[in-house]
Amino acid sequence: MFAIAPVAGTKPDIYEEAARQLQGLLAGERDPIANAANASALIWHLLPDLNWAGFYLMKGGELVLGPFQGKPACVRIPVGRGVCGTAAERRESVLVPDVHDFPGHIACDAASRSELVVPLVSDGRVIGVLDLDSPLPSRFDEDDRRGCEALAAILVAGTDF
Predict the structure, then answer these.
(1) Cβ atoms of 76 and 53 closer than 8 Å
(2) Does 5 map to a domain?
(3) What are phi and psi of 31, to 5 degrees?
(4) Is residue 143 a contact partner of residue 15, using CB atoms and an 8 Å limit?
(5) What is the CATH number of the domain that holds 40?
(6) What is the residue-wise DSSP string for 106-117?
(7) Among 62, 107, 122, 153, which one is least packed by beta carbons within 10 Å?
(8) d(CA 3, CA 160)
(9) Per-residue pLDDT tens digits for 57-115
(10) pLDDT (tens digit, 9 = 90+) per residue, 131-143?
């Protein structure tokens, strides 16, 4: 059994420890659903002030709900729509301080105020996105972006998508 170790300190400290724990969780397992499920649970427990943490995986040219922690969510998101679809289309992370100011935001949970989406890219193709929502405006910053990009890279490298 894997025990999530709580982390105190700065955001970079938290992400450094999250990366170490994620590598341990993925060791010896390559299944995408199992690994994304454990990654979302780890993120949910280590990062404060989230109301959703999970993945959308690319299937048939659209993002389809994958493993997550939080309230039930939108099932399908077209590439180019909302924050998740925009990150997939641009192939770059999208950090939104206030989702009410993001044109075309898809409100799966009315309590969400800020969002960070990191694309998962393998062999030059987008295979999904890591999506984090918070009920707090401006919850995410550049430390979160860098940290979540590192976590996404660990997941992609350790998984057979």
Answers:
(1) no
(2) no
(3) -70, 130
(4) yes
(5) 3.30.450.40
(6) --SSTT--EEEE
(7) 107
(8) 24
(9) 999 999 999 999 999 999 999 999 999 999 999 999 999 999 999 988 887 778 899 99
(10) 999 999 999 999 9
